[in-house]
Amino acid sequence: MGKLIAAFINWGFMMALLFNLVSYSESVKRANSPLWICVIINLSYFSTSFIERSSFQYLPWALADFVTIGALYLVQKNRNRIIALYYCTFGLAINGLLHLSLYIDLYIRGNYEPWWFWSLYSVGINLNDALMIIVLVVNRDFLGLCRFGCWLKAFVGRDNKLDKGLY
Question: What angle do CA 116, 121, 125 make, to 5 degrees?
């Protein structure tokens, strides 16, 4: 079942890439196009799809997610920061932490008894991948993560000003 889901996720990222390739041809949409984000994520997911399924697979997957985040920010450094970048970074960070946690659970702690975290891992990984595919196509803040981030940034900034006596 895992191979079928992985194939579906890879197919979804490929379809998002093809959609963005076509929409990139319109010069109006180029500045805010998530094309390069799609390319990097497709390369990452394609390169890790050849890792053999075992308990040791989770560490390379976690490392690939964190390297992908770095590559996304390197490529987008001189471009517009678009919503898809934030959503994909958030999704890859959650995926990387889930991979790392499962690696620690299986390999370091030696736990092979199913427990609630394994279900959380399965649902979390697939949900994050689906959300990243959707945001790469629509490039909209449909969950309000960017609005929440702006609110949090303003809230934390306001507290710092209060501490310094600026109000």
Answer: 155
Which residues 6+ apart lie within 8 Å of 47 measured at CB?
A: 64
Handedness of CA 112, 116, 120, 122 (dihedral sign): positive
Q: With beta carbons less than 8 A apart as the criterion, state whether 137 and 19 touch.
A: yes
Mean pLDDT of 63-78: 93
Q: Are the C-beta atoms of residues 37 and 84 closer than 8 Å to each other?
A: yes
Residue 77: both structure tokens together: 């450094």
Per-position DSSP letters for 114-148, written without gaps between them: --HHHHHHHHHHHHHHHHHHHHHHH-S-SS-HHHH
21 falls in which pLDDT band (50, 70, 90)? Answer: very high
Listing DSSP states for 64-130 in one string gives HHHHHHHHHHHHTTTS---HHHHHHHHHHHHHHHHHHHHHIIIIIS---S--HHHHHHHHHHHHHHH
Exposure letters 53-84 (e unless 16+ CB within 10 A, then b): eeeebbbebbebbbebbebbeeebeeeeebbb
Among 103, 128, 133, smallest CA distance to 117 is for: 103
Query: At residue 148, what is the residue type?
Result: F
pLDDT at site 104: 93
